[in-house]
Amino acid sequence: MTKPLSVLLIDDNPARAEIVQAGLRDAGYVLLERLDGTYDLSARVGALKPDIIVVSIDSPSRDAIEDLRRTTERQPRPIALFADRSDPATIAAAMEAGVSAYVVKGLAKDRVQPVVDVAVAHFNRYHAMREELDRARLSLVERKTVDRAKGLLMEQKGIGEDAAYKLLRKLAMEQNKRIGEVAQDILTYAKALKP
To answer: Which residue(s) pair with 64 in the sheet?
Structure first.
């Protein structure tokens, strides 16, 4: 059985917060705490370590959006935001700040779980794509490093490109390292030995 997801709720309106809390309870989420605002949000998220942040608010202020941005930069979490009022610029700013699901005038007890589920799914997909992009960037950097190390080996040893690559691969296997790491080591040593 999987552990129920934990939630940090931000809402300064007790009546509205009760609707969200009832929806969270019905969905099986664990409510860690309810905050009245986003002040000191990063510290509370660091201390409580919620799986999800749910915000229900009249209309998010610039300060609230900035608090969410700072928090998601340091401690990424899915964020579901329910707003009574909004405009396209505020929605765009909130999404840019890391909000995963933004609902305007849609707060009802039975809508809490689907919106939170969408926020979690969107967050997971976004972070999977980001990790894939980071891996692709690393791969590109490693390829360039390998190409530069091959060129250096070709020049220093008077060998062809295939022989230089085979030498890099052999060294990587002997040292139990990735070929990119061995290539970087060669470039680092060559730079250190340069007069």
So the answer is: none
Q: Is 173 exposed, middle or buried (0-12, 13-18, 19+ CB in 10 A)?
A: exposed
- Which has the closest alpha carbon to 36: 11, 14, 7? 11
Q: What is the pLDDT of residues 139-176, one digit of tens each?
A: 888 889 889 999 998 988 899 988 888 888 889 889 99
Backbone phi and psi for residue 137, each to the nearest 5 degrees, phi listed first: -65, -45
Domains annotated for the chain, with CATH where assigned, are 6-127 (3.40.50.2300), 133-193 (1.10.10.10)
Tens-digit pLDDT profile for residues 71-114 = 999 999 999 999 988 889 999 999 999 999 999 987 889 999 99
